[in-house]
Amino acid sequence: MKGSTIAKLQIAQSVGLGGVNTPKDIKAVQAALNQLLGLIPPTKKLAEDGKLGSKPENSKTVAAIKVFQKKVVGMVRPDGKIDVNGRSHRKFNEKLAVHTAKANLKIKVKRLKQGTKSTLGSLKIDGVAKSWYVLEPGGPDSQQEGSDHRISTGTYKLKPYSSPKYKNVYQLLNVPGRTNILIHAGNYHQDTLGCLMPGKTSGKSSNGEYHVGNSRTATKEIFEYIAAASDTSVEIINSEDLNND
User: Fold this and answer.
1) What is the mean pLDDT of each run of 10 residues along the chain (245 residues)?
2) 91 shares its domain with 121
3) The domain containing residue 21 runs over which residues?
């Protein structure tokens, strides 16, 4: 969820260990890495200063290049160097193109079924073929802080959020009457006081309450799309036939 985006990494000469390393090319690589931070955890935002320092092998930029090569390019032995039109350069441009196409990400949550204390819905991202489940507390929709009920329907912007309990997740902004409404991993309605918990599978317990499975995996998948976007909104709606099962 950054500011301006670049669609292509344009460098005239090699950057990194053993590279030519002109300031303009280094700065371009730093900007590209910052745009793709969601793909290279735990890399932190780099200073876009066009510098590698007197010892490039100790540079944060070179370290980030190596993480990109390992996690995204799939190199077993990252060399920390980006050659013009080389394997790493091509992969940068592939991922930057996806990032740009999804710069304004739209997520839609449709609530489908509910128990007494749980609500099960579907989560879809515009332009993405796959979908996920999402679990929330039961109804009715509530604007009361601390209530064990789901939040009001509406469209909400997201921003990064981190706390000792929930690290590197996302928060819904300007939720009527509610604060700290997050998207985070969790499987059962007891795990949330209004937050949204994605899952790759869903089920219904003997007590009539819904749950989701493989939540960490689902959350990670969704967060990869969010991290690659400049702006993300979540639209939450209730299906017409939402009722107690």
Assistant:
1) 68 97 97 92 95 95 97 96 97 82 82 95 90 96 93 96 94 96 96 95 95 97 86 94 67
2) no
3) 15-101
